[in-house]
Amino acid sequence: MSLNPQRTVAELKELRALTADENGAQRVAWTDTWLRAREWFAAKVKELPVEQHRDAAGNHWVTLAGASEKALLIGGHLDSVPNGGWLDGALDLLAGLEVLRRIASGFGGRPPVTVRLVDWADEEGARFGRSVLGSSAFAGTHSIAADRGRTDRDGVKLEDALRRCGVEIDQFPEARKERKNAAAYIELHIEQGPVLERMGLPLGVVLGTKGVERHIITFHGQEAHAGSTPMNARRDALAAAAKLALEIRSIAGKHEEAVCTMGSVKTFPGIATAVVGRCEATLDQRDLDAGVLAQMYREAQEASRRFAAEENCTVEWTRLWNIEPVPFHKDLLELCEQAVRETSGAAHRLPSGPLHDAAEVARAGIPSVMMFVQSLKGISHNKIEDTREEHLEMAVVALDRLASKTMEWILTQR
Amino acid sequence: MSLNPQRTVAELKELRALTADENGAQRVAWTDTWLRAREWFAAKVKELPVEQHRDAAGNHWVTLAGASEKALLIGGHLDSVPNGGWLDGALDLLAGLEVLRRIASGFGGRPPVTVRLVDWADEEGARFGRSVLGSSAFAGTHSIAADRGRTDRDGVKLEDALRRCGVEIDQFPEARKERKNAAAYIELHIEQGPVLERMGLPLGVVLGTKGVERHIITFHGQEAHAGSTPMNARRDALAAAAKLALEIRSIAGKHEEAVCTMGSVKTFPGIATAVVGRCEATLDQRDLDAGVLAQMYREAQEASRRFAAEENCTVEWTRLWNIEPVPFHKDLLELCEQAVRETSGAAHRLPSGPLHDAAEVARAGIPSVMMFVQSLKGISHNKIEDTREEHLEMAVVALDRLASKTMEWILTQR
After folding, report:
1. What interface predicted TM-score (ipTM) does this complex get?
2. Backbone dihedral angles phi then psi of residue B184, each to the nearest 5 degrees
């Protein structure tokens, strides 16, 4: 049986019909719709000569035994955000399924290395605010104590929602067993950004996932009457924040791929007739280079203090979240570039702004790489998320090529 | 009986004990506490040889008949904002009461002109969002159709709240009768701003009330992923608003007394991980000169369009409210300056940012002027609102001088 990329597109549409409504995909992890998607997937897998099981964190493993126990892992995730798109996560897994079918039908039924397809549980963290949950259990980077008490908007506890799906959070450490013999990890994903579309390229090689520094910055000034307070007597907290909102663009602009975003500004008292006494702004900074990230963070802090002083305000920073950059494996980047170039004629290397399961796998020390396929208008996490079908098919072909190259590479490792 | 400014301070404290709690003054118009304050005031007035009545809008008139029917009006308001200060409005009325006592005890019981003290109903508009309600009925600038359906936060209708206090909104036009023979209007008020304190002056002459242009400005960009959207591919609505937040300071800065305030900024979707797709900001612009106000409004519009274009966004303006500037009467400004100078040795002329009942009276064509007394730290509409007692006493003396000068001036008018 040869690779059939059209079948992947057809299966994506089948899944969409099964799990989307007029607002988009509804495969939120630990919900009935997600479980239905997983049953649908398990039934597809049953036709193959594979072993399948769920691990202690709910990740679904499909194993095609090979001549060597060393395993190539191919990953994806069926879960989506609420009102999500048809491709985010599902493309990765269904393209991997097609690659697995091709491998299973060749090599006289026994490929040179073991190949394992994994459907990670709860990549999005959409319901409980904890992303890459299943892959963090695999990687041993999970945080059970902090996560077990998380609740969804209806007050349901994370641990109870997992239990309902047959997963005990206390058993998470057991998921690390799946790392045994893992020799490499590859993952295809839609870009979720506009870079490849702007360059006119169907496919890209992902350098790694950017590190993130995410903070709330609060400027304190003095609330005052908008009518009776002269301009030169004001301590306007919004003015300090506005200066920072503009300055972060210079801070990011010194580095090619770096981004800085002020996504939320809140003003207090926040009425038309009062000078802003307090302003809370979020700052999200990302880069693939830890040194660049640290420099941007430092520069933003310095700028905020300078602007606070200029406006006769004070400033305080509160960290919301941070994660270090995760660069992908040098050899696999080269293989990915070959696969992309052979498929589409050109290859561009770019970092991933969003976090992915591949980063957790890489943090566990397993050589990893990701491939991106173009996103139309760079839009994701939305029902209008889309990619041209010809590009989806090219992505399946390129992932298949990357799988073959990586299997060969695994055999060359000591 | 000679003027007793200490009595005014004592009466202010008496009123505070009667109508304030641990959070400040609670004399919100059309509430029981406000009615209690008005009863207390009516009882004080009863000791004087005056006629008193409520007009059709609930304004309380106290009339001391004089040799001429031409009347000097002295105004104030007992109503406060919730959790307000002890001086805003009440000082005006109680200082006026003391001046009325002094006049009533002189001139052999018959002053050369009639003197009328008025307690305006609902200057603050704190409960229904419609300020200077009573004085607008007097001035004929009321807006019954728009106001009758207003509701408070409990859903009580304005017209029902007024009826409970014996006021029928349909009768508002009758309040214009009180304008008969009105020859001049004077009003004392706390500054509610920091200007006099910064200049070290107890008292000031108010040039008029500033005109106001108040708008919501909405910038539309494109919501985008904070991690995957390159800096140069963004349409950041917050960036356009931030530029405007800074630019309005240059726009106001060209004019000595002008102010421009961005008091509220709202970001959408307003999350740390998304570039701001839509940003709503308020802009409040004020000046005493209608030409300056129009110029500032035009410049802000032009700037907003320029910044929207620079950020690849669009912009729309929605007017929230506007009012023209109301300059006070030239002759009365001169008399007020004399009174202030004779009392405190120096006089400074300044516009009022906040609106006052005096502006409504002036709009009715009655020569009007206001006097300010210093506010500590420029803070008002707050329980910490305060003024030094020696300054309060000077203000009573200066208002009395202004009353005498204005009575003489009235007699010189045709």
Report:
1. 0.88
2. -165, 155
